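#lab-general

N.A. 3:47 PM
ok so I finally got the sequence cleaned up, no stray characters, all 511 residues accounted for. can someone with queue access submit it? mine expired

B.Y. 3:52 PM
send it over

N.A. 3:53 PM
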Amino acid sequence: MEFPATLSVLFVLVTQTYCSPIASDGSTHTTANILEFYPDSKGDGLNIIWAHAANSQVKVNSALADDTMMIEADVSPEANTGIPIMAHPPHNTSDITLAEWIQQITTTKKGMKVDFKYIDVVPASLQIIKQLADKIHQPMWYNADIVHGPNSPKQPVDPDAFISYINEGFPNAVLSLGWTTAWSSDAEIQLYTWTMIFDMLNYTFPCSQPVTYPVRAVWASTSWDKWVWMLGLRDDFSISVWSSSNDDVDIGGLVTLRQYGDIARIYYDLPDSQMNDFKDALQNAPDVIIEPDTPRWDKALWESTDSVENGDYVFLSTKGVGIFGGHRRASIRSKQQYKPMPDEAISISGRVQFVFRAGQSTYEVNDGVEIYIRSSDIIDGVRIYIGSNGDMRLESALSETESATGQLGPSDCYSFEVSDSGDDTAIVVNVTPVKCSDGTGVLPVNTDPVVLSLQLPYANDAFYISITKSGDNIDVLLEDVILPSSSCLSSINTMTIIVMCLFAMGQGSIV
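B.Y. 4:20 PM
back already:
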């Protein structure tokens, strides 16, 4: 594969480009944080009270009269007229229209969650909402299942059309965007995969509105860590846990989600029996103890560059990072520079998981991840390539003849460690096929590590560490990426780093 000496990809801290600006139309509080809007929730999503499937006048009356905070209902086209009514498919008649439903609820402070099952009913519904905008002074959520989820043959609501209609009609709302799902105890898939997560983020990550992700409780035990990872992307992302009364929910998974997630951004719309079991389990749940000295991923140490207009994203979470899009068009780079010393090597370690695109099941040649050390403001220096087919290369950007190659057992996931001591010793790269952290993927028969080493001239300069993806056909998830911690650092952030260096003089050398 041709490898240019330098790649003109500048690393800057990106200002996110969004789907649509929020317009002013007379409504208020439609995108409000519901925990702040309802003080009785005491800042805990568990305390939000829901009325589910309020698709009839009787159910609306009941929700308006009790202590419900958020009222959810489904919008469908009326059988003969196509007028938006409150009905769940396959029903196409109702004793209450969308317009009547909104007018009645807007006489109170109760929030509204409007669930769209058909894309064709969205434009007319948004026109009604827009006409009533000056009456709406409470939270407004739009819900639709826009991408394929576990086991479901159901066609999702078209995501591009749905978001476009909202932004053109009445964008002042929280977007509740989920996956189509189907569950049975013998179903093939019993978790949300990273492909499903990335597919969802492809549509929702650029949106300016707050986004909540409806997730099915039955997969909490196998997917809670992915949901927490999503919460770490943006402060206005939340999770809405729902369930069917027939689902065999592992309550322990819900407990774990609450222990590790932000209780102010996790909501629960569960059947009474499951909610009672959940609350009982919380009473006996042990406290989670996190060792403070354990090295772990730190989002604050990285900055990103991407190309939002081309659909290339860096999903930079407090729990890890996903790189999505085209060949070398989205990347992360350490905010600080590092300088190896003869008695203290620079080391970077972590795990990579290759993520299929939706509808894809094979990788292409040169699909992989690239790690750069001794890198300046652009992707250059020394390149470590780990391919999805097991190809492995350690090479110089200045000379293609200076390289070392190896072959790993093909795997969806690899662990890696890179060590650089500067000019006196070789750069050493150790890569091992591993089981993916979520249990997906095929672990190869050959799990032996491959170690490459290469000695290259070193200019005694401080450098950045950069990571990007290679190829247009796969995306990558990076987990537990640990940067050097003991050597002194060089950074544009002068005062902060000078103080860090002074404190670290006994452990490393000032750059």
